[in-house]
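tmp note - DNA-(apurinic or apyrimidinic site) lyase
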Amino acid sequence: MPEGDTVWRACKRLDQALGGQELIGTDFRVPTLATTDLSGRTVIEVVARGKHLLMRLSGGLTVHSHFRMDGSWHLYRPGEQWRGGPTHQVRAVLETAPWTAVGYRLPVLDLVATDAEATVVGHLGPDLLSPGFDRDQAIAKLQAEPDRTIGEALLDQRCIAGMGTVYRAETLFLAGVSPFLAVSEVPNLGKIVDLARRLMLANRENPLQVTTGISRRGQHHWAYGRAGQPCRRCRTHIQTAMQGPSPDRLRVVYWCPHCQPERTTG
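out:
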């Protein structure tokens, strides 16, 4: 599932291309919007809220989408060949004079009143990439379920919006905290929140998502994607497992058992 910075970059590209432009044609290929025509409306702005994408239009309407595992928006010039996947995977086509935005494999795509966006994003916790990020609220939401593992809590978008498996792994490694530690046992939640925000802000313009400071291929991450490989700090093999609140919500987690002990000391 894309991280919040991936959605942020997609929103930035769409906003730069479509912002201020009038829609001259729309084609929604999902049953609930099959007869919807937004032609004549102007794209006011495209913004990210956690992992949600909100395209605000004149007349008080918002096109809401979520990428989930492999959704994406692509931009093409008029007449340019679409390359985001086979045609049957297209869920939305939004045309302006200079650009055509094509949404592929979007599992969530709906239309809401702009003043009712809270119905689709109001459940989210503080957005790590928001200029107005509320650190204290994020910490309080994490602390609300003290017996839950920190690995599960960090992926709960109701606590902190925007974090995915990449930044969970990298944040916890840098903090020296096991993903299996209970929230109540984490010595400094503020440090984890600060690290996560710092990593995502540093990478919001960088699709490589580098957390080690080294952009060479294969050296981008400390723990994520490195199962069975030696830890860059202690040479212990990086471990991997599935973690989640239920069998249908399991996500892969990476950690170094030496650098991230499962019990706190002192």
